[in-house]
Design a protein that fits this description.
Elements: E1 5-6, H1 11-30, E2 56-64, E3 72-79, E4 85-93, E5 98-105, E6 110-114, E7 123-130, E8 135-143, E9 146-151, E10 159-162, E11 172-178, E12 185-193, E13 196-198, E14 206-208, E15 213-217, E16 229-236, E17 240-247, E18 253-258, E19 266-272, E20 279-286, E21 292-300, E22 309-313, E23 317-321, E24 335-342, E25 348-354, E26 364-368, E27 370-371, H2 372-375, E28 381-384, E29 399-407, E30 413-421, E31 424-433, E32 437-441, H3 443-447, E33 454-458, E34 463-469, E35 478-480, E36 482-483
Antiparallel strand pairs: 1-5, 2-7, 3-6, 3-8, 4-5, 4-7, 8-9, 10-16, 11-15, 11-17, 12-13, 12-14, 12-16, 17-18, 19-24, 19-27, 20-23, 20-25, 21-22, 21-24, 25-26, 28-33, 28-36, 29-32, 29-34, 30-31, 30-33, 34-35
Length: about 500
C-alpha cells in the first residue's frame, strides 16, 4: 500500500486530541494497576495494547530530520496479531511543520516507515495512531556517529528519568520533549552530576505547547560532565521525553533512550560481557528524597554468583559501577546483573558500553535496564522488534546477535522464543530457567530467522533483551522485549 501524504497544518490539532484520548483510554484499560491522580502511570513506558483493543497510540521523539543529520530515524511497526492493522503517522517538527501518512501493518509482520516529510525543522516527533491493538512501535536512528534503536512510548507522564548521559569532551547530549496533548505543559529539568545536583535557570519553567517538539542541548548549561542523570518533571500536564546521546570519546556511538516514567526497586541487565580493552558501567540514579540501599548481584554464565556490590545511594546522586574494572567479573564470561533497592520508592538503572579502539562501528552505546513491570508482562509475552526488514534494515548487514532472558524470580520458569512470520510462529528455542539465572539464545539460532521479529513467552516474569550487531561489543545496541497487555475481554 502506498502511503497517502497529507500536509495540512489544520489537521494536526485534531489528531493531537484524538491521540491523547486514545492513549488515556489505552493506559486505563491495560495498566496492571490504578495510578493515583497526578502520579506516574502504573505501567511500563512501553506496553503493547491488547490485541482486541479498538485503537491504540504510540509516541516517538528524539529523531532529527534529514536537515538535522544528527540522528535521522525510521519507525518500525511490529504486528503480533493474525490480522492487518491500519493506522497513520503524524509528525511535527521543532518549527511546528507537520505532515501525516497512512499505513497498514501486515499480519505477524513488520513495517518500516520514514517519518512523514515536513517542510522545515531540525528535530521531529511522531504520534502513531492505530485502528486496533497488538502492534508495537519502535524507532531506529542513524547518523555520522553510528546507529541505535529503542521502543517508542505508549503513554505520557508527569516525569521521566534518565540514569545515563555525558557532556564531557566531544560527547553531546540532547533531551527531547514532546507534548502530544491538547493543553500546554510547564516543565522543569534537573541533572545529577559528579559535581552535584544542578537545576539550570534556563531549564526551569519550560513551556511546551500542544503539539510542540522541544529539544535542548544539555551541554549548553551542564558542561563537561562525564556522568549526567536527568529528571524531567512537569508542573502541569504530561509529556513524552527521550534522550539522544552522541558518543565520541571512547569510540563513536549513538544512543536513543526513552525515559523511564517511574523509579523501581528491581532492575535487570539480562546479559553483559566484558572484553579485553573495553569498558562498561552500570549507572544507578536515585532521583528521590531518601537514601536508597542498592545491591547489584552478578550471575555468571559459568555458574554461580560473585560477591554482591552494595552501596548507599544518596538522594539526587548517581552510583557509577565500573563493571569492566571489577576483578570479580571475569573477562569473557557472560553475566547478568540484577539490582534491588530498599529505603525508598526506588531508583533507575542504565548501562554504558565502549569497545576497544579499532572495533567495528559503532563502538559505544547506552541502554536502559529492564524494570520489574516490564519483566512482569500481563500476558507473560514480550515482542522483540527486529532492527528493520530485509528491504529496510537499520544498518548495512544488521542482524540480531543474542537474545537474553533473565529469571530473577524465586521459582523455575519455562520459556519459548518464536519468530513471527507471515505463516505463523516458528519456534526458535525453548527451555527452562532456574531462579536467579539467565540464558542466551545465540547467533546461530537467530540468524536463520533473518529480520523477523521475535515473540517470547514464559511461565512467569522474565527480563528480555536482544543484542544487535554488527557493533564493537555486547550492549552497544540493545532492544528490550516489550510486554504485551492482556485481552480486554478477560
Amino acid at each position: 500500500m502506498s502511503p497517502a501524504h497529507h500536509r495540512s497544518q489544520r489537521r494536526w490539532p485534531v489528531l493531537l486530541v484524538a491521540a491523547a484520548v486514545m492513549a488515556g483510554l489505552g493506559v486505563a484499560a491495560t495498566s496492571p494497576g490504578t495510578a493515583r491522580p497526578g502520579a506516574p502511570p502504573v505501567a511500563p513506558g512501553a506496553l503493547v495494547t491488547a490485541a482486541d483493543a479498538e485503537s491504540s497510540a504510540w509516541y516517538c521523539t528524539g529523531q532529527s530530520t534529514p536537515t538535522g543529520q544528527v540522528a535521522v530515524g525510521s519507525l518500525v511497526l511490529t504486528n503480533t496479531t493474525s490480522r492487518a492493522v491500519s493506522g497513520r503517522v503524524s509528525a511535527v517538527t521543532d518549527t511546528a511543520a507537520s505532515a501525516t501518512i497512512a499505513l497498514t501493518v501486515p499480519a505477524r509482520g513488520q513495517l518500516v516507515t520514514s517519518s512523514p516529510p515536513t517542510a522545515s525543522g531540525t528535530w521531529v516527533s511522531q504520534v502513531v495512531t492505530l485502528d486496533g491493538g497488538g502492534v508495537a512501535v519502535s524507532q531506529f536512528v542513524h547518523g555520522p556517529s553510528g546507529w541505535s534503536e529503542a521502543p517508542c512510548q505508549s503513554g505520557t507522564s508527569q516525569q521521566w528519568y534518565f540514569p545515563s548521559g555525558a557532556t564531557s569532551g566531544s560527547n553531546v547530549l540532547y533531551l527531547s520533549l514532546f507534548n502530544p496533548t491538547s493543553t500546554s505543559d510547564v516543565v522543569d529539568l534537573s541533572f545529577a552530576t559528579p559535581s552535584g545536583l544542578t537545576r539550570p535557570i534556563n531549564y526551569q519553567g519550560l513551556v511546551v505547547k500542544p503539539g510542540q517538539t522541544l529539544v535542548e542541548n544539555v551541554g549548553s548549561y551542564v558542561q563537561e560532565q562525564p556522568s549526567v542523570a536527568t529528571t524531567v518533571s512537569t508542573r502541569t500536564g504530561r509529556v513524552v521525553a527521550s534522550e539522544l546521546q552522541v558518543l565520541a570519546i571512547k569510540g563513536n556511538g549513538l544512543a536513543i533512550l526513552p525515559g523511564s516514567p517511574r523509579t523501581d526497586v528491581e532492575w535487570v541487565v539480562p546479559q553483559s560481557l566484558e572484553i579485553p580493552g573495553g569498558s562498561s558501567d552500570i549507572d544507578v540514579f536515585n532521583p528521590g528524597s531518601t537514601t536508597e540501599v542498592v545491591t547489584v548481584r552478578v550471575h555468571l554464565s559459568s555458574g554461580g554468583q560473585t560477591t554482591p556490590f552494595s552501596v548507599h545511594v544518596l538522594p539526587g546522586t548517581v552510583w557509577v559501577l565500573a563493571t569492566s574494572a571489577q576483578t570479580r567479573i571475569p573477562v569473557g564470561d557472560a553475566y547478568s546483573a540484577a539490582l534491588t533497592a530498599t529505603g525508598g520508592p526506588g531508583v533507575v538503572m542504565g548501562r554504558v558500553v565502549s569497545a576497544p579502539a579499532g572495533s567495528p562501528s559503532p563502538q559505544s552505546g547506552m541502554a536502559n535496564a529492564i524494570d520489574s513491570l516490564s519483566a512482569a508482562s500481563p500476558t507473560k509475552e514480550w515482542v522483540v522488534p527486529s532492527p528493520g526488514t530485509a528491504a529496510s534494515p537499520a544498518a548495512p548487514g544488521v542482524i540480531p546477535a543474542h537474545l537474553a532472558l533473565a529469571n530473577e524470580g524465586t521459582s523455575t520458569e519455562s520459556y519459548t522464543v518464536s519468530a513471527l512470520t507471515r505463516n505463523g510462529r516458528h519456534t526458535v528455542a525453548s527451555g527452562t530457567l532456574d531462579a536467579s539465572s539467565f540464558a542466551s539464545v545465540g547467533d546461530v539460532l537467530l540468524f536463520d530467522s533473518g529480520l523477523n521479529p521475535f515473540l517470547v513467552t514464559a511461565s512467569g516474569p522474565m527480563a528480555v533483551s536482544e543484542d544487535v550487531g554488527p557493533t564493537g561489543a555486547y550492549g552497544v545496541v540493545t532492544m528490550p522485549g516489550i510486554p504485551v497487555a492482556a485481552p480486554l475481554d478477560g
